[in-house]
């Protein structure tokens, strides 16, 4: 039955619908797998054995009665432990919230439950989502399943590892500077940061109100699309004419699409091997009719500096009262970040927001020539666990990858696996779209993915998982 852990959601859904497998059966098997693999990987803060099996039993009963809610019905899904879960502890990866039991579910959690998904557990994260390594001082570091000495990225590292290691069929993450895309890239899965506010954030512990996004993480583009269909705000879909159906995503044509390449910043500081892998992916995209053009975007450095100011200021504002009372309950790297945020003046914050608006206009102008922008998702080999000091952590996301600009813009960004380094570490590329172009982004990712079966590669070549099958 091991192959089932790496099946895509649609195949599992069909098997559940036909009765050839039950939700209780796959949930029990998945829980066994988690308890076997997770002591080394540490992807989960909380494995929800009891409630997951209750949800699975309910899902099976509904399937027998013909009441099938959709493709996620009966499918084990993980959620980052930053989303409120009614009656169950939500830590946000912190000591501060280690006993907090919310009175309600986050909107996205309610939507998953309404769709019949089985919430199998809550995944580890960088404390309060304030970092890109998922080295958590309170719940331990999450480790990359491709190499246990390496970080998985963050802050949604637990979600990425749970998906990549076959310990759930999909997961939710949050993305404030790349926290869905970076760990997805470093762990060899697909991750989508939707357009800002396309997914309702109520019930998600905030990091930065200006930049926070919620999105799906899965092993395939189709699986990301299926999860996104469930969690999106339906009013936003109607208002912007998005068609996220699998049928539409599979049939969009790409012959007239132009993708911009901004070599400044996006390809600066990139390791040679990663650049070669991403360039090969570009050649592959050209083979399906996509055109590439060089573009320039003025003001990138100024925009990124403004982003740092806004993000750390908003983080401090949210945590101010608790941090002043219990500063030592926060991890050292988070203390450093919050202390830095406390020094931001109101005038600096306002100026940073002005710079952000100006930068957005620069990007709009540059994207008159193209439909999308492509870049590496991460640009260097992931750090070793414990390599970076707390004082260095505030810049880790900017050092590891090219993701923060997507949040500065609020535009949708998809990352997909595009190869593996000589050390068998995954490499990802990201495609930035214009607002509300998720269906087209997913379509490009799907057509690329069809030529490169990275899921099969993962299952066959990951040494850690092979040892523990």
Provide an overview of this structure.
The chain is of the alpha/beta class and 469 residues long. The chain has a single domain (2-467), classed as Amidase signature (AS) enzymes (Alpha-Beta Complex), CATH 3.90.1300. The protein has 19 helices and 13 strands. Helix 2 runs antiparallel to helix 3 and helix 7 (221-231) runs antiparallel to helix 17. The longest helix has 26 residues, at 300-325. The protein is globular, with a radius of gyration of 21 Å. The relative contact order is 0.13. Pfam families: Amidase. Residues 25-442 form the Amidase domain.
Q: Would you give the CATH topology?
A: Amidase signature (AS) enzymes
Strand percentage: 5-15%
Give the total of beta strands.
13
The CATH class is: Alpha Beta
Mean pLDDT: 95
Structural class: alpha/beta
Q: How helical, in percent, are the residues?
A: 40-55%
In the CATH hierarchy, what is the architecture at level 2? Answer: Alpha-Beta Complex
What is the CA-CA span between the terminal residues?
Answer: 10 Å
Number of helices: 19
CATH superfamily: Amidase signature (AS) domain
Q: How many domain units?
A: 1
